[in-house]
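Assess the record.
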Amino acid sequence: MAKEAFTLTSPDGSTVELPIRNGTTGPDVIEIGNLFSEKGIFTYDPGFVSTGSCESAITYIDGSEGVLMYRGYPVEQLAAQSNFIEVAYLLLYGELPTADKLASFQTSITTHTMLNEGMLRFFTGFRYDAHPMAVVSAVVGSMSAYYHDTMDLTNPEARDVFTHRIIAKLPTIAAAAHKLTAGQPFIYPRNDLSYSKNLLRMLFAVPAEDYEIDEVAAEALDLLFILHADHEQNCSTSTVRMAGSSGANPYSAIAAGISALWGPAHGGANEAVLRMLKEIGNTKNIPKFVKRAKDKDDPFRLMGFGHRVYKNFDPRATIIRDMCHKVLDKMGRTNSPLFELALELEQVALNDEYFIEKNLYPNVDFYSGIIYRALNIPLSMFTVMFAIGRSVGWVAHWREMITDPHGRISRPRQLYTGPVQRDYVPVEQR
């Protein structure tokens, strides 16, 4: 509840009281919902960088202190002691599960991994060289045509079925998109494998020989999914909330989030890291490219360094750095020129005064891209892997939004800068 208020004074001297609303932690907010009706004026905030678009109890970020918490639990604790399925339950339902609830949730996710067989034929309609993100977005959007029995958004059981289906089936869809590009047969999921192990098998197994799942690879994927599970009101999550606010079917809302994530300024950043490393080419070229990065007049930018929200450090990067080095050691990739280049660039960023002064530390995208590359995951699949982890956050926010009794359809306003009213002129008189 509001305890204080800001007083906004108009140029004509009139005033309006704007209530201050207090959360459990973090910055307070000024409520401006009645500003237009009372004063006939909008606020202007490009990119909504200073605007709270909703109430949420899911994720808290303090960018200045490098804090990231899921439902109040520091991500460092969850990464060290939990697993992705347990974290998924926490984000979706608000509390850590009991052993029985976790087992039931795990079973439900496991038994929902298969796709309707008609959906597999759907994949063959895409070109072989289609980007996997385009395929995944399209297939997820089509799920409402195959699973329309859970479209009653007022029914809690229907919402749960949708929740479990999308989280369970997205790895299967992602793997099928990869197999399409690779020209290989689709691999069906197995109910005896964990979430990450199942995904690895569907990605890389072939009918001609047995596939042995690497434990470190599975551990790395599980950690990445935890760290990517949610990140407050980012671009893709806000997109899911906005699309879902219209009452649209939830599969289309998630598909909208996938499309938003595809942008290189968002989920495509880890893919951009690998492209940058390939452009640098060799460790001896690092000084030249670092010099270019420091030059304000040079368009070149080092991808995977710094973060829009975290001003000191990204807590996820600290966690994933150790896993990155563990993966490289286990996979025997430390003698690869690409990884040698990445490790050398990491040391430059951690020790160069310019990077330190501007807080341009290696972020989660830098390390995740290196890990995916070490696991032989194709570059085009990097953002897809991000989407698998982030799907949990999207669904959690959709569930929160759809059950909010005060929820309204999203409808931002604008500062109009076009022509004022003018009269139509017949074409022969122009």
Remarks:
- The chain has a mean pLDDT of 91.
- The chain has three domains: 4-52, 75-260+379-402, 269-374.
